Structure formats: structure tokens, C-alpha cells
């Protein structure tokens, strides 16, 4: 259990990667603060984790609200007395299409949730982490910031901004015991992708097979397995890892 007794806040704990991270972190021994806007969804997820023998509490939060971000951090401290890690996974995706055609309000929303939301959460948890003399922040980003993909423009813009946030945090928090890293996720097999393929019918299944063949590991990596890279970044095994952009994509992108 590489996260045993660590208090971890996870934003964006919705279907797919968010839920997988919450369940996986709890299985690794973490005390998980499950957070998203949907109260019913996070309550159900926290209950499932507890029923499976883990420790979790549900705290609703819209990361577009500074007040709610600080309330989320306070709830973690009130419950368990500390904050060892933050996974900022909350996101908003503009409508699929050319960036030239993206509605500006949707791009601004993506920036507010992903990038500014990441800053709000960092500002909320860093004071407690400084008092402890330790902490780990992991921002979840995307392969689309490495390799531009048609349709992903506004989303990738926001994720690129959160990549830079990570770099700034890593440098500016030097000497505090707080680390900041980014996990750049590629294609992941999970609920959202299943829905994407299903919506395309037979063409979707053909596309799934094509994508799996194009990825060097020979499959679309399951989200629950991709999440393990994030647990590593949160853990003491990564004590000397700081300011890193870690690619998690089965070799779909190989950094120079």
C-alpha cells in the first residue's frame, strides 16, 4: 500500500478516471476526500469505498468557486487533520470541433475549471501542506498538449496552462517539502470512452480496434491502470520527483 494513511483530495471524481482514482487510492491505503459537483454521485462513491473497507468522505465542490475550494481543503483537515496529496482532475471540455469555431465562452469555462481551478485548489491546500512540511500535488493533463489533436483545441489550451501551473508550483514551493507534478494521460479505456465508441455503432468498434493496434502496448490502457502512475507521484517512492510531466499513454507518445 503505497499511500497508506495519506489524506488525498481528488477533484473531478466523476465517472471514468475520477472514480477509478478514488477507488484505487483507497485500495492503496489512502484516506480519500471524494469531490465533484454531483452530490449524489460522490456520496455513492464514498459509500462504495467505505463498504469495501476503505476510508472516504464526500465533499461537493465546484472548482470554479474559490470559496468552495477552500471549504474542501478545510473539510479534509477537519476530518483527518492534514492534507498529504491533491489530485486535480476536474475538467470541462468545449464542444468537439475546430478551435476556430469554438465558442469563446466554452474556452473560458475550460480555462476556469482546469487551469484556474487548479490554482484555486493549490492555494487552498498549500498552507496546510506548508505547516506539515510535506505534500504532493498532481495535476491531471492530456496527451493533446504534446500532440495537437483536431477537436481538442480549447481543452488542450486549458490543460497546457495547468502544465505550466505545475512547473511554477515546483519552482516556487522549493524548500517547503511540497512537490508538484503532472500526469499527461492518453487514450484510456473506461466509461467515457465506452460511451464514445458506442455512440458510433459499428464504426466505433472498428475505430477501437484501430486505436488499440496503433498504441505500442497493443491496447487502449484501462483508466484504473493509468491511475497507478498518479499514485506513484503522490507516494514517498517519488520523493525526488518534482516538476515532471509524466506521459501515461502506453507508448502512444514517446517523449524525446
Automatic annotation (TrEMBL):
Coiled-coil annotated residue ranges, if any: none
Origin: domain of life: Bacteria
SUPFAM superfamilies in the record: NAD(P)-binding Rossmann-fold domains
Outline the extent of the Ketoreductase domain. 6-187
Q: For this chain's UniProt record, which GO biological process terms are given? A: fatty acid elongation
In terms of InterPro entries, this protein maps to: KR_dom, NAD(P)-bd_dom_sf, SDR_fam
Q: Name one GO molecular function term.
A: oxidoreductase activity, acting on the CH-OH group of donors, NAD or NADP as acceptor
Q: Which CDD domains match?
A: SDR_c
Protein family: Belongs to the short-chain dehydrogenases/reductases (SDR) family.
Q: What is this protein called?
A: Short-chain dehydrogenase
